[in-house]
Amino acid sequence: xRHYFTNDNQKTGRTYSISFEYxxxxxxxxxxxxxxxxxxxxxxxxxxINTALPCMVAGIAPKTAVDLGCGYGxxxxxxxxxxxxxxxxxxxxxxxxxxxxxxxxxxSGVAERVALAAPGAPIKPADTIITNPPFRAGxxxxxxxxxxxxxxxxxxxxxxxxxxxxQGAESYIKDLMRVFGNVGILAKKKGYVVVECVxxxxx
Length: 203
Prior knowledge:
two-stranded antiparallel sheet; about 30% helix; 5 helices
């Protein structure tokens, strides 16, 4: 059985066209079998975008960002389209997802400001890291993403994530508190919670 959180270069199967709106801007993403939420934008991802993106632009907007576990690129592409001059690195272990993310970045007119990381590549330093974690990959994988994100963030950089109560949100928030030393709850809706952490100097 193929999983969206594995390195899958499978190019067969159905393809899908998915519409998404943020603010007054509309997007159309191409998706396919073998990637996460293949035929619609899942509620957690939508909530994460609509909660985190206004926070990013409320103060000094980030110059660099990482979409960690990008899938076919929704979060990173919307960020790049809505924040002028933002450069985004999109990371995923699924090669099929990365191919789709590259296509979607080009179709959305942000390809020149979006780079894709090869599976297994270390996270590059960034002002912001954002993720809808691959919970089915296992808790050790997700916690590893938290720790790698903390290490990669620039000073005062911000980490955004969405969790689902049924998938252990409370436990993951405790893990983030251990890694970052702070967790802010930005939104709770329909069993999902969006959080923000700031990389601060640890005493």
